[in-house]
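B., you asked whether I could sanity-check this one before it goes into the benchmark set. Here's the sequence:
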Amino acid sequence: MFVVLAGCDWSQYGFDTGHSGWNPTEQTITPVSVQGLTIRWSGLGRRPVVGGGLVLSVSNDNTSSIVARDTQTGAVRWTKTGGFGGPAISGDTVYATTGASATTLHAINLATGNDRWR
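And here's what the prediction gave me:
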């Protein structure tokens, strides 16, 4: 399960290139405020990233699809099948690899899930 906070984009897994899982600019969660958090929605998936009002994760099933959910409601906006590794977001484009050795790089429209190129 993953938690999404309003206004807090994580464009790659683990927040940064070192996958530290720490956002040095985060001001919303403190030792005091964490006690008041409640679950708005939850979803299953691996390697979540957040951007453009969406949370993207790789499905836990054998398809390894990218599932894009609305950050506010959790509603699925689009799904892209194809055996993907973890996605990363830059601007309005999602980048993800497919293939046993991550041999194909895909550029995917963040809003629609349509291929830009591969």
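One thing to flag: The beta strands are 46-51, 54-58, 66-70, 76-80, 88-90, 93-98, 104-109, 115-117. Otherwise nothing jumped out at me.
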